[in-house]
Amino acid sequence: MWKLLVAVVPAAVLIVYIFIRDKYEREPIKKILLAFFVGMVSIPLSLSLIRIFGLDELPYIFEGEIRQQIATAFFSAAIPEEISKFIILFLLIWWNKDFNERMDGIVYAVCVSMGFATIENILYVYNDPSCAWGRALFAVPSHFLDAVLMGFFLSLAKFSAKHKFRNWVNTLLVPILAHGIYDAILMVSGVVTEGWYLLLTIVFYIFIYVLWLICLDKISEHVESSPFSYWKKFKDKQEKRKNKSQDMKIDNMKDYFDR
To answer: What is the pLDDT, as a whole number, of residue 234?
Structure first.
């Protein structure tokens, strides 16, 4: 039972987090759950891409173990997985009426990615329980960060009139790079000397820290750009004026009766 909890809870926590951050116009719970469960389909889709295009064989065209590990990180993981998530995400939300502000792209991308990460995590944890906490703290959040980047640029591609082509490219390129670098550092760490391992460990933590800072900033940027935020601020301002007017009336009445 604990294996299932450790495998599932990290994704659930991150979905709740991104749902709360979408504070101006939250997505329907049914659509959130749909994106999560449909995101699970990206696992077999990713495996199909690897098999159809022989991506797992491409790393062996490179000489040297380190180069092969880097190539494996990209060809066998980052590229097919992020393309699979993108296909599911695009088909799910691009023509959906609920995709009506920039933050929605991040929300749905995270839900799709957490569907993928949950199945992947269950498979890893049941196969090797010792990796449970490491995956909970790093692997699942890494999928979350990749999804934030994908959703950020997909929303720009839909709602921004500028740099359409660049945003479309970045929708896939940036999460692939982030995912590939993450996996490459871990894979290369397993085939280098102890000194290089320590150095790569430091690089890994710095990379994760910087990636979190970037993604949190991207989330804030899309949250505050919401057209619903301006309407809420207007309503709050009107409410304050109304309350202030009511307070003034009460004060005037008190003054009258105190005479």
So the answer is: 56
The rounded distance, in Å, linking the Cα atoms of 68 and 259 is 90
Between CA 243 and CA 233 the distance in angstroms is 15
Contact partners, residue 80, CB within 8 Å, separation at least 6: 46, 47, 49, 50, 55
Which residues of the chain are modeled with pLDDT < 70?
A: 1, 230-259
For 9, residues 6+ apart whose C-beta sits below 8 A from its C-beta are 136
Q: Which residue in 107, 105, 109 sits closest to 21, CA to CA?
A: 107
DSSP string across 11-67: HHHHHHHHHHH--SSPPPHHHHHHHHHHHTTHHHHHHHHHHHHTTTTGGGGS-SHHH
What is the structure's pLDDT at 133?
86
* DSSP states of 59-85: GGGS-SHHHHHHHHIIIIIIHHHHHHH
Q: What was the pLDDT predicted at 129?
A: 85
